[in-house]
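User: Teach me something about this protein's shape.
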Amino acid sequence: MISILPSRDDRVVASGSEVAGGPAGTRVLLGATWWNVFRVLILMTATAAAVGYLSKYYCLINGWGEGKYTHLCYSDIPPLYSLRGLADGAIPYISDLPADQVLEYPALTGVFVYLAARLTPAGNTDWFFDVNVILLLICWLVAVIATALAQRSRPWDAAMVALAPGIILAGTINWDLLPVALVAVSIALWAHNRPTWAGVFLGLGIAAKFYPLLLLGPMFLLCWRARAWGAFGRYLGGAIVAWLAVNVPFMLASFDGWSRFYTFSRERGEDFGSIWLALTTAGRQVPADQLNTVATGLLLLASVGIALLVWRAPQAPRVAQVLFLVVAAFLLTNKVYSPQYVIWLIPLAVLARPRWRDLLIWQAAEAVYFVAVWLYLAGLDGDDAKGLSREAYAVAIVIHIAATVWFSGMVVRDILRPAHDPVRNDGAGVEDPLAGPLAVMGSRPVATSVGAPPQ
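Assistant: First, the predicted structure itself:
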């Protein structure tokens, strides 16, 4: 199988490679040294993680209280160690705690958090953060390697996941790298024609965070178009079994504690980062009693549009393209957009449109939002001298939304005009590296344009 080299495939990488002698030539020896693609990706990820850890330097030295917003080093992890009883040995969902102290995350994330707490000397918040950093680095590495393995002809695309500014900045705000890693493994297993195990890892992802549940819809549509009913049945069955295996024990032990995440999400109003907060700032607030209905309605409308795109596109869309669009639609219409949510999209974006230029433009907008949200919170926290006004923060929200819409538009263009798709035109002769069972079932072929210029 042809291995696509970034310096030959991507104009940004080709331009940057001039400092090292220019794009790789046809006689370059691949794998001739100890530094193969996976070892380089591991080194890239570890280096990026170190940069992300050092970005928390102020809080690591001065504590996680005053100055956490103005120095852009806030993390949910240290305060929740004590606020959710973990420092006192509480078991998530099961221990008898006041309702406002019950961990508001799905069950598998609770297991992950409890494991980190057990590995931490009692009451040591800094140790707890460091232990989580190590565990989250493992998740990041899993996501990178799984992304490389998913597209066997394009393993170097995973470097975009390894070096993504969004993960460097937000990777240790919360535990979102856990479901991202599980989803990446699920996609890789699907690409290797293992639908049952792909479903198992998707189910584990759903047990760690809500958003992987959204992937069942587009996979159903793609399987419908390819008539791959058996593959989807195994995929769905694996997801259900895995989700039940994680959740049923907690449901039986303490249903109220287990259901805290679901009630918390339903009752939440408009919050940071959402289009709804920006509209409120502009004087166009959606009434609180209608927000769930309006937000859900917009998501359903977007989902119908994506379904029509899947079904009516002249050539079957690639798996990654549809998965990205569905998760992007959810984030754009959701009641809250925490800065770490960008992590959900990054591996999907890399697989959907592996172009450094587009990724960096989108990530630059997310970096603007990352800075804005903490400076806005600094003002709310009483540091008016360094705080950002609500109006300026609303502008940052619009910037992040516009960038996500723009990247989504590029993906839609690739679906409607496959000649622009960098994967279908990379010369490897593979219609969709992630097709897996869809390719086996004979999804509509795509005419490739070998040798087309990078987009």
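Now, about its shape. DSSP finds 22 helices and no strands in the chain. The two ends are 22 Å apart (CA to CA). If you'd like, I can walk through any region in more detail.
User: That's plenty for now, thanks!
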